[in-house]
Amino acid sequence: MISFRQQGRLSATGLILIAAVAAALGLWLGLRQLQAPALPSLDAAVLYPAPRALPDFRLTRSDGNALTLADWKGHWTVAFFGFTNCPDVCPTTLTTFKQVHKQLGDAGVADRVRFDFISVDPQRDTPELLARYVGYFSKDFVAATGPDEALLPLTRALGMVYARGEPKDGTYSVDHSASAVLVDPAGRQVGLFRPPFEAARMAADLEKLARTGGR
Question: What DSSP string runs through 45-62?
Fold first, then answer.
């Protein structure tokens, strides 16, 4: 027969176990809340189930400064990989980005979103050429490039690809992904925009993101 004192010891032990389970459950729920998406419903962007951590990288901007993962933190970033000799996709994309940037400016959130054009043709796309090319669309856009040793790990991490064709008559083409990468203020890839890009839909999504912050 269990005495009152024994029952008291069992009750205390049970309470300790219950408290421990409750604390663990609270911690688990807290972590789930921190990890759960806190983003609004978007129309144009395709969001991943969970953010993807990105490796650090180092490219060279058109102004000679370095572009690293740290530069993608503190704001939303839309990054597109292309090259200045691109006959159609790149100029069309940057034209759309220019329209999106203007709409974000009209909404008062342009400073919370940046657009990066990263060349996968560093042999021809010098910093000076990149500055002129991207500056034609917007002085606020960032242009950068780097050697394949820097570009390949980054593009692979982002799920992007590129390949240069065989030189012919002193020139060559470059095939590259046509999607634009979406990076959150924590420097994580959270999704992408797929072509065809529509300025109004992209701007609406980015405005929502800019007003809600990160995950």
Answer: EEEEEEEE-----EEEET
Q: With contact defined as beta carbons under 8 Å apart, do 125 and 83 qualify? A: yes
The pLDDT of residue 209 is above 50: yes
Instruction: Give yes or no for residue 161 having a pLDDT over 90.
Output: yes
Furthest-apart CA atoms within the chain: distance in Å: 98
Domain positions in the chain are 1-36, 45-212
Residue type at 21?
V
81, 120 contact by CB (below 8 A): yes
DSSP for 154-210, written as a single string: HHHHHT--EEEPPPBTTB--EEE---EEEE-TBS-EEEEE-SSP-HHHHHHHHHHHH
CA distance 159 to 22: 40
CATH level 3 topology of 45-212: Glutaredoxin (3.40.30)
d(CA 25, CA 65): 47
- Give the Å distances, CA to CA, from 89 to 46, 82, 95: 20, 8, 10
d(CA 26, CA 21): 8
The pTM (predicted TM-score) of the whole model is 0.81
Residue with tokens 């999106």: 100
> Residue 200's pLDDT is what?
98
Residue 47's alpha-carbon distances to 5, 152, 189, in angstroms, are: 58, 23, 9
Whether the Cβ atoms of residue 182 and residue 191 lie closer than 8 Å to each other = yes
Residue with tokens 């000679």: 64
Instruction: Supply the DSSP symbol for 112.
Output: G
